[in-house]
Amino acid sequence: MIWNKEAECMPFEERGKLQLERLKAIVKKTYENVPYYKKRFDELKVKPEDIKTLKDISKLPFTAKADLREGYPFGMFAVPFNEIVEIHTSSGTTGKPVVAGYTKKDIEVWGEVMARALCMVGATKDDIIQNGYGYGLFTGGLGVHYGAQTIGATVVPISAGNTKRQLEVMLDFSTTIITCTPSYALHLAEVASDMGITSKDIKLKAGCFGAEVWTEKMREAIESKFNLIALNIYGLTELIGPGVAQECPDKSGLHISEDHFYPEIVSIDTLEPLPEGEKGELVLTSLTRDGMPMIRFRTRDITSLKREVCKCGRTLVKMERITGRSDDMLKIRGVLIFPSQIEKALLEIKGIEPHYQIIVTRPHHLDELEVQVETSKEIFSDEIRHIEAMKKKIENHIEKSIGLRVKVTLVEPKTLPRSEGKAKRVFDKREL
Amino acid sequence: MSGIREISVFAENKPGKIEKITGVLANEGINILAISIASTNGFGIIKFIVDKMELAYQKLKEKGFTVSLNEVLAIEMKDMPGQIHEIARVLLRNEINMENAYVFIEESRKQAYFIVQVKDIERAKRLLEKENLKLYDEVKEEK
Amino acid sequence: MFWQEEIETIDSKNLEKLQLERLQKTVRCVYENVPFYRDKFKDKSLKPDDIKTLQDIRKLPFTTRDDLRLNYPYGLLAVPKNGGVVRLHTSSGTTGKPKAIFFSKNDVNQSAELIARCLVMTGVKSDDILQNMMTYGLFTGALVMHYGAEKVGILVIPAGPGNTERQIALMQDFSSTCLHLTPSYALYLSEVMESKGIMPKRDLSLRRAYLGAEPYSEETRKKLEQMLGIDIYNSYGLSEMNGPGVAFECINKDGMHIWEDNFIVEILDQETGEPVTEGQQGELVLTTLCREGMPFLRYRTKDIAKIIPGKCRCGRTHKRISRILGRVDDMFIVRGVNIFPQQIERVLMSIKGVAQNYQIHLEAYDKMLVKVEIEQDFFDGNIEHLLILKSKITEKLKSEILITPKVELLEPSTLPMSEGKTQRVIDRRTL
What we know:
Chain A is α/β, with parallel strands linked by helices. Chain A is built from 12 helices and 21 strands. Chain A has 2 domains: 1-252, Rossmann fold (3-Layer(aba) Sandwich); 330-428, ANL, C-terminal domain (GMP Synthetase, Chain A, domain 3, 2-Layer Sandwich). The mean pLDDT of chain A is 88. Chain B has helices spanning 17-27, 53-62, 83-93, 121-130, and strands at residues 4-12, 32-39, 43-50, 67-78, 100-105, 111-117. Chain B starts with a strand and ends in a 13-residue tail after the last helix. Chains A and C meet through strand 1, helix 6, strand 4 and helix 7 of A and strand 1, helix 6 and strand 4 of C.
């Protein structure tokens, strides 16, 4: 099902024209209304008129998360404050949070791109969407809510957490679509099985999972435990929230709503644009954002783009699932490691639960990477030497996958903290 | 049977609780050999070893205390430095977890006992006997 | 200022005419679409055509919280569950099954319209900024207010409750002018401000606050108004009536205007179920006139209030009700959550090691303490077992009532037992 056939299946050339038109307008708008951008443009000696083709976007300055913090709270707004109708902030773990301001039009666009995403997952107005993303300042909850409302589906604004109630609602109302973080979906599956609930009792047909990096193995685990199709959603507060990109049932990448968000892939080292298909950092420019336009926002997410007519009929460019972030990528004794690689290796071993933590320390000026893994009940009740053997096996397997010997610690089932939102997997205790 | 029992009393963290409990024991002429108090935020457990276990248990129960009588290990040791460390090493080697522990010392100060509460007491006894540790027997009560 | 002046100042003759039309329509709708109501009509040998005047409302059956629960999940729905409704809110009930409240698309819109009337009635203009500090999610409070503010076109900060320092930072950074929160949280907030040396009048841009979801006193309002240097308005609503916006105070702060074009209000004697004379207190009973998804006839709110006689100076003709004076049942409210002692009891009795007796203590700032006696036989001298029991009780209670109480374990038979009704709830809050 396609929510907006005209926009989502537009011929490449025609979309290119639309994007250029919108790019020119947004560049002009930011130059004229956002002093921060005027200053940056002037520094680079670039004028709005210099944008003649889409390629010219590389003349424009980047925007980093730190720039947004500098402008806190209103520095990036392009409209008078009284036109802003809603504010969201990203969790500010380091200093000031990032503020996103939305005009009425922005909220409509958000509803539109989220409607596309939910429709891609299979939502119609007859569906009941259990929205397990957090409501409030976090964009996840209200973003999905607006999309569901645009479609006219029934939304249960259950928000994050409260696992027992989640399962109760899932059973009593036969909810058909769930939206939450993938790690929370696994937690729900675990609690459901503890309560004797089987996939037969659950009527979910699809899940829209995102807000954290996850793997194919996790997808398989969620799909088999709930008997549904698990699809990946992508978004970030700086651009709009969830709904920037969504995977279709073909599972061949996430379709970026590129008529609203123009994507580029740049080299992590040189920041030069990379040819299509190459892996690098995703950079996004908002083409229609009214309240707070973003020029070349550096997402820090690592992916690649593929432009083709998808089996689903959409022509929207596809991005590969995020394999890591250019900033949470770990460099251990010179080796670049994505936590997701370790997760993938772990899940290839039988008897291992998809709950783990990576702890990085530097005890003697040498990086140590410890992986704490939960074992299944069966294995843990075994004799000590079996546990030892299991540990060796995991260490060998990870070494084979990432080329680095790590220390593995097996912990009892259900002892690692479960998160109700984004799971924090990596604890980097080195003082770098 | 080589072993000893301890009395545990549940107590909310309120003043006067120990005074009341010890009052009951004193009235019955029961001698307290060892006492341990574990407290958490909100409540605590007071543990005793006394000379007349059965009697103490009955009397406390009659007075409405929440009481429990449990078998524990009483490992004999000399009253001198390093002794508990020795025992702790043996316990560790045998993978016996201490749930709770305290000491009581005989009047002579020649012998002391390390009182240990463990999950599987029979297994602990078997293992410790192999280690040549002496376990103390409860004094048979004169009925 | 008015949001919909014509309807807000409608004269009594036209209002009654409108009410009768809408009542007849609602009665026909539930008779045709809700088997629960059709059965009740049959029991009373009543037909929709028997409702000829507004006084005939007394012939109609009541709806209770239990009816909602017993007909969970879809029983009281008047539209198809697929396609007819767009939102579902649930809340836990007294004996296990939660109650479900459905909104149709028009219901979402209508509840937002009522909030828009309320906000404008207190002087809100387009440059106001609302910091919405109610819980977003299954509680209707935050989302309905959010939609209403959106309708007026003012900026909404969906802050949710808690994290008081961040709340204050948001007020400073965004110059919030209006707050929406519970009275207990307002008290806490003002204490935190005081301890941090923040003077709202000097350091913040606050103009007004909307307090709801919990009963509180006129004295507390005065105290809060003084501490925060703002105007405080009372808000009344309940999830069964689609949340806040049922009744709201105007700038005169002399009772809450209940939107009579949307609800017919009756005040009934709690014992006899007969109407009280105007001005006397009794149970508030509400009939919805505009609701599509779940129309309710004569819903017994169990809230005690009275009608304030006379006309309001603001020009609105809609009746005013007093603040909520109490409850017919033993429900109490903590941090905006409705809780029945029976809910606590059911959870406690399902846990091994817990004895029969318990007490619920409510203290300042909505701190909730549950005192629980342990079972004599459960005690085995192991402290760990007690700690596990304690956290199990805490977890299970949290999962039932959605807030985390403090749990205290007591010795058996230490709580007072009375021969009649044991007092389970000890409320020491001064709201």
